[in-house]
Amino acid sequence: MQKKRSVNFILLIIVIILGTTLYKQFDFGTFIFQQPAMAVVYGITFLACLFLLIKAYRGKQ
User: Fold this and answer.
1) Of 7, 15, 28, 40, which shows the fewest CB atoms inside 10 Å?
2) pTM of the shown model
3) 35 to 5, 41, 45, 46: CA distances (angstroms)
4) What pLDDT digit, counting tens, does each position of 27-48 carry?
5) Is 34 left (phi over 0), alpha (psi -120 to 50) or beta?
């Protein structure tokens, strides 16, 4: 019998919010961020949450 896989909704919401924030702050005309320091913080947090989300999802197999 297989276990049902569940997603951590809190991490999923954080990933969605940070992803849209990074997308909105990026200027595609000049390929730079509006606030580079905040983009670094958002990017590191985005990648960490995405890593934890994938790790938790794969660990339940």
Assistant:
1) 28
2) 0.82
3) 37, 10, 16, 16
4) 999 999 999 999 999 999 999 9
5) alpha
